[in-house]
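Researcher: Let's try something more involved. This one mixes different molecule types, so please make sure each is placed in the same coordinate frame as the others.
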Amino acid sequence: MEFVECTYYVESAMPIDRAARAIAAEQSTGTWTDISTKEKEVDERLGARVIDIDGSNVKIGFPIDLFEIDNIPQFLATVAGNLFGLGALKNVRLIEIKLPKSFLSEFKGPRFGIGGIRKKVGTLNEGRAHVGTIIKPKVGLSPKETAEVAYNAGIGGCDLIKDDETLTNQAFCPIVERLEKVMEKIDKIKEESGRTVLYAVNITVGAEEIIERADIAMAHGANMLMIDFLTAGFSALKTLRDDDSVNLPIHVHRTMHGAITRNSKHGISMLPLAVIVRLCGGDQLHTGTAKGKMESDLEEVKEINDFLKSDWHSFKKVFPVASGGLHPGVVPYEINAFGNDVVLQAGGGIHGHPDGTTTGAKAMRQAVDATRKNIPLEKYSLDHPELLRALEKWGRKVDWSELYGK
Amino acid sequence: MEFVECTYYVESAMPIDRAARAIAAEQSTGTWTDISTKEKEVDERLGARVIDIDGSNVKIGFPIDLFEIDNIPQFLATVAGNLFGLGALKNVRLIEIKLPKSFLSEFKGPRFGIGGIRKKVGTLNEGRAHVGTIIKPKVGLSPKETAEVAYNAGIGGCDLIKDDETLTNQAFCPIVERLEKVMEKIDKIKEESGRTVLYAVNITVGAEEIIERADIAMAHGANMLMIDFLTAGFSALKTLRDDDSVNLPIHVHRTMHGAITRNSKHGISMLPLAVIVRLCGGDQLHTGTAKGKMESDLEEVKEINDFLKSDWHSFKKVFPVASGGLHPGVVPYEINAFGNDVVLQAGGGIHGHPDGTTTGAKAMRQAVDATRKNIPLEKYSLDHPELLRALEKWGRKVDWSELYGK
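Model: All components are placed in one shared frame. Result:
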């Protein structure tokens, strides 16, 4: 029999082996009291097994027949369901998922992946880190104003422009008009510079409407789609990927993840979430930064990025996105940590440049170039004034608790 | 201007007023660095405001125009999005949501509510607590075996029978065959006893398929639907409610909530989640127990249940469900804590009765009757042997850390 293997960090007043058995029981065939002989037969066939115990980490094997495989909500209910509430456990955290081949075969994985996106943008040979930005102010601009900012960022050198996660289809910036205006500018950049800039338009909405919104986006010229997989639900991402008419790369944001991932002893680690995102077809995924404003454990982010870029089944590789408080001064840290297969996304760190968005985008690209050539930013900035101005403003790092919310 | 008001518990190395402003900025128009004068104009129009600070609790007002109102993922991105990951905050927990009338008016709330469900079951006048059960073993039974257990529970006195949250449409128990077999037994119970028993068939699946699955359930005679709102996504619940063809009450389960709600300093409290469930149309919702196996704060559960049963806009009231480790011996605790408008759901506490499921269901109903008549269980059990046997097995309470996982 094949098993889905999940590893949990567990704290309990019970001995660890009994805590492990409690999880296996709660999440498969058991309950808290003895029931009948029937249960023994069922348990042998479908009961989850404790496979291994290593310190506080327990590995549980779930027989594949427990799953309605392509029903992600059912999968989560089984491996990440009631156990988080069990009073007998003090803390429990899902830290790893291993899926058998027969499970993986039901999924398509990324449609484009790192290679497909590089091909679109024209960086397949160059292989450098991509530079992305988010429109700022993140909400409140009109479609025309949004397009202006997008043009300024793109012409300056950004490879990717994305909507804020809170911007979908509000009255102050309707999605159709926004998309039309931005894509006009994306076309203009192409004409003027020959470069393809991706615009990840945020089509996040419930899965019941996601294809409809993707169709609208495609009808108005979108070249990339953005979705928030936790608020919209994994099935919205999978629905997008599984629909053959949606022939665009998918930029996957993870807003709300901190509610689930941040406590290091409880909840769900980002890694298993990243596994499901790759499975369901995300082409880009936000995973954290080396030096940013969001709480982030560098070793953990590296592990996630390594997984996204690893050979896994027949799935294409996912482009990791580092985002949240980046600016030119931290670029070497990010590339040293994650390599060149990363999208370095700067919002304030581009639009907040003293000389404006276009100069800010240039400074970010210069920081990427300097790092690739192994030249210290200070030295490179001597004949790159855009970078120099950025370094003068932000330095190499930022004390977030000082700067944020001033 | 109207505002969505959200209260957050906040811990930060920054002074609380600056932490509050950081949240307001991150979740609306701001970023970590100054950008331009444009931002000031936008901020005045759409920026979230710090309304109040009370100790560690900060209340933020989000202008209504920030929202694409019926897009729940967008709503969550705004009030429960990136803030959980902000490095400048040590802990942050969404504890309350207040919605203005123009927001509420876009939602329908429960289709049936407590009154509608009582009408179906025939307890409108009697007004007693309902008794529910989950099929046990929770997975692994065939449709025919599931139906046998359902019959035994229903004829013994259960008002509600539900699927396990991990049981959807697996090969070992396909939903159509399961539903047909169970509804035959529900009809049989009606013929034999005149009583209507609800069967909450678990149609949890992504929102893209939820109506299809509801249609299948209705075509095969379902009288109640069950959905897990966190794994399937809020939009799946809302889609079910908003579709006029789905004329059945919705039993809402909350598997995975412990990953988000359990840490008392971080994440999202159950109360705001319950607010959204009522808004989106859940008729029953799991909220916790007074004496159960799941971790539960009694005062918090009371507060949630009070909200579900309160007068709120034009929305019908939601039937709270207490579930997880209940048995006849704890019934008085539950009813004393929550009143009679509660569904007391016992799985192991019914099927694990020494004399089997039917006797177990009778014992639960006897415990409800005794409590209504204000008769101590021990006394009532003197001429109710089913209850006596249950009390002999489980007593009045259970040491979960002892019993679970033995």
